[in-house]
Amino acid sequence: MKHIVAWFGAHPLRPAIAAIAAIFALSSCATLAGPARSDRDWYPYLARTAAVTLSETRFAVSPVSDWSYAPDGPTAQTYIAADYDLDALREVWFMLEPQPGSQLAAHTLLLFEFEGDRLLGLTIEARREAHEEYSALAGIFNAFELAYVWGTARDFLTRRTVMLDHEVFLYPVAITDAQKRALLQSLLQRTQALEARPRYYNTILSNCTNELAKAAGFDWAPAFILTGRSDEYLFRRGIIPGESFAQAHARSDMTEFVSAVNAAPAQSFDAALLAELRRRFAL
Questions:
Q1: pTM of this prediction?
Q2: Domain boundaries, given as residue ranges, for the chain
Q3: Relative to the CA of 140, which of 177, 196, 247, 274 has its CA 20 to 30 Å away?
């Protein structure tokens, strides 16, 4: 608590953080919503939850979302099963999807790269019902359950660039191999726990970014709520590499590239994406 108070006293955004603190107080009322449930009429993309099998050396996830998209919506709703060797984990990539109309709001997710140019992604979402639209304000008051959705890079990225017409930025994550493995294992374990016991999404306490931060063991930071600044925060911590944040940010803009390779065969997507990322970041 002391380090949060010290940060608050010195930071120029303290009025905004004061407002967030007030929201924290209001969010305590959300406990009146009752326990989270898994038996609702879910929005189709969020209808299926992942089952994870995890051992010391391997893991399996099913179903893994592998949808395809055109500008007017999904063209195929495909699911696959995935099985991986933990020793084959190579890199972790952080994706930021700015939300239109705000510099402070963004969706974030992770892509895990394995030997053989294989990618597996995790997006943490507000699990909406079929009739619901997402609302950050409603999300403060436990309006949505929490979803951990495992999927292919092609699904996650083209959904955003092609169907939603949003920007996507992809950054390499500069952590040790042991930290990469621990992060992945933690998120797999959290997926298992969520499957056994549903929880609520919360815009302040359990959003897409601070759920990842919890799994990584990070201390609290404003960027886990003001998620549009989370990439800059990670750069300042040395977790996103680069000579300057402006340089790293410019290199990470994959919007046009992802849209262009949406027409390529699905089986070549991961290799094409990784080749471009390695070229840009000299990996």
A1: 0.89
A2: 38-281
A3: 196
